[in-house]
Amino acid sequence: MNSDTAVGSDEHLVRSGVRRAGRRLVPLLILLYFVNYLDRVNIGFAGPNGMNEELGLSATLFGVAAGVFFVGYLLLEVPSNLLLHRFGARRWIARIMITWGVVATAMAFVPNATVLIVLRFLLGVAEAGFFPGIILYLTYWFPAAQRARMTAWFMTAIPVSTALGAVVSTLIIQHAAGWFGLSGWRVMFLLEGIPAILLAFVVWFLLTDRPAQARWMPQPERDALERALAAESEQVAEAGPKSVLGALRSPRVLALSWVYFGIVYGLYALGFFLPTIIKGFSEQYGTSFSTVQQGMINAIPYAVGLIAMIVWTRRATDPTIRVAVPALVGGLAIPVALYLADPWLAMVAVTICACGVLAALPGFWSLPTAYLTGAAAAAGIGLVNSLGNLSGFAAPYVTGALSDATGDNRLGLWVVGICMVSAAVVTWLLHRSRSRPDVTAAPPASTDR
């Protein structure tokens, strides 16, 4: 067999291995992230449906409770990702899921605002490392050419969990009130926290750390996939930081953190406050919706956003366009919603914003993973995710505080638009400067093995 034939054979085996791994791993990862994201944002459904009144929460205090999750998340994100890189995804993700499931279930029994805030902080500590760990895990299995598509499929869990979760959560709140002697919102926390504990055991037995360990994959596919990933890793290592410290102080990593902050700011502002905004339609527009109807309306932007996410990832091939265009469109759409006299037109603008956020997210993660590898990737991806997810604290807190100060949500949602537009601008500036070497890209490589 000559070298050209060998290369062609390897490409065929890599494609076959990618398809097999995608069918085996990605559905499980989608399910895990579905449960993860729902446990993170279901406080948004609890707040306007009994929790705020029962615990005496103002809009500002609710924003603190929703956002303090990300303080704990930030503190342990990078260490958690480094531990996953060292011990393997199967063990570490199973550990994360058990601890977050316990804390999420305990949310059903909070007696007051103080305990709620403490548990939300601990939930962030427990979940730290899950999402960036999965992004890192995808680099162990899928070459860059296929990774954006696999990341997009994995991240469909965001709109699915928000859309389906909105309906399920509001159904539980409305119809399960009184179960176990608990309010509806408490039953919701209980029933939605338990699956994480159960899925931890599924992860332990079914997740495979790397292709070389995949007994369910033919040996030639394993070998070809490992060779392709190793060759790609060597190319990335030549351009990016060579160490954990290099990744943590890289200007490009810090700029990517701001891009992610701006995009995710829109995601969390919508996730935490859209249920409250919809509930306020009755006062603003003279409409009346039941709790379940509110949940179904809440699901509309995310259902449309799911389609936009998949279509845009397939159509847009340039990484800069894939991120900057939807971030810009979403950022410009959200202020428009504030000045429309009809609730359905307002929902159209909100839906466009949701489409922009969701379409930008999968493409975004192709940027740092094309620049980082090894332990530098574990640290850099963790840092980008943790700094970016500071928006998870800032968005609900700022939106709630501005709502209390002004009496409506307009100013807070203007901030959402500004953050998203700035993310698009920084993405474009990174594209303009990508030919310039990163000044931190070449420290000694002794610490990343």
From TrEMBL:
UniProt-listed Gene3D superfamilies: MFS general substrate transporter like domains
Keyword Membrane: yes
Residue ranges annotated for the Major facilitator superfamily (MFS) profile domain, each copy included: 25-435
PROSITE patterns (UniProt xref): MFS (PS50850)
SUPFAM superfamilies per UniProt: MFS general substrate transporter (SSF103473)
Membrane topology classification: Multi-pass membrane protein
Pfam families: MFS_1
Keywords: Membrane, Transmembrane, Transmembrane helix, Transport
Subcellular location: Cell membrane
InterPro entries (UniProt xref): MFS, MFS_dom, MFS_trans_sf
Record has Translocase as a keyword: no
Transmembrane segments: 25-43, 55-76, 92-111, 117-140, 152-173, 185-207, 253-275, 295-313, 320-338, 344-364, 371-391, 411-430
Database matches in PANTHER family: PERMEASE-RELATED, TRANSPORTER, PUTATIVE (AFU_ORTHOLOGUE AFUA_6G08340)-RELATED
Name of the molecule in the record: MFS transporter
Organism in which the protein naturally occurs: Pseudonocardia humida
Species lineage: Bacteria, Bacillati, Actinomycetota, Actinomycetes, Pseudonocardiales
